[in-house]
Specification:
Tetrahydropterin Synthase, Chain A; Band-7_stomatin-like; 35% helix; Band_7/SPFH_dom_sf; Slipin family protein; elongated; Band_7; three-stranded antiparallel beta sheet
Amino acid sequence: MQMFYKILSDNERGLLFVDNNLTKILGPGKHWLVGWGKRINVEVYDITRVVFEHEKLAFFLKNNSQLFEPFVDVIKLTDDQVGIVYLDGNFHDIINPGTLYVTWKGSQDIKVKVLSLSEGYQVPDQYVPIIGSVRRSGNLRKHADAILFTDVPEGHIGLLYVDGKFEKTLANGWYGFWKYNHLIAIKLIDLRVQNIDVSGQEILTKDRVSVRINLSANYKVVDPELATAALKDFNGFMYLELQLLLREAVGTKLLDELLEDKSVINDVVYQGAIEKLGSYGIELISVGVKDIILPGDMKLILNQVVQAQKEAEANLIKRKEETQAMRSMHNTAKVMENNPMIIRLKELEALERITTKIDTLTVYGGLDGVLNNLIQINQTPQN
């Protein structure tokens, strides 16, 4: 005969097995156990862990439900149900569909909110902040793949796809979606004005000169559903279209035309792209050539041309100034020829300039001799 006793504290419950068969559930206290030629075993559980888990739990509940009824609460979810568990009024856990969820009575206040997945795959708004914050803290690792959370920021829109099909658009906000029984995907689209650069394009002009051009364009998505449905990568599509139009615009122009007015490229590319991009839900706002870069030898040739042009312009200006000066001197001489008073004034001006440059001036023959002999105009030499 086997006889012993088992003491269970207030937070413990025991499963009594006789010859590996569950016969009783033991509550707190001291229990005398007597086995008449039988093997007795007690499995002890701490009810403060709330959830009762056992590899044969489903079997026990099916065949010994009367034993467990005073000690546990049982929730059995179908394949289209999910449970939200609250522990003492606070969110605690998520119960997956088709789960048998058993909790100990008398441990804590446990409540389970059962949601039907057949009514929708979106997590109700009141649960999103709670579940999302707990999930971010890492306390729901086992449910990491069960819920898809997404934040649609300002200036963006979300496109919801369910099982590969577009379902609806999502405005700004925080969303959660159950991934049970469905393939959920969300694509965020930026609705703000964006920039795309087409850089470093080596292109031949009409006169066979190789140039490298950098182009920049501004655009925005005005029909996100159309753009994503028609184009796998609308950024890549835009880049290719602008690249082709840029080559077309440059290839029909001479180098001098491009250097003289870059806007001809802008107009051709803009007019060629705006209608096509618009048919895919993309609005082209502006296009502009940032740089036209010439190869090294072409730069040298152009610099020489510009230098020659500038030198020619400088010489022309110089000749014009000399001609103007000679014409002015000729006119002055003609005026002075028949006007002694003007000649006298010029003599005084000359004398004034001379006296400003010397410290001492010695005059012989009187001041009149200086003034009379300083400047002699239109006098023929005597033989």
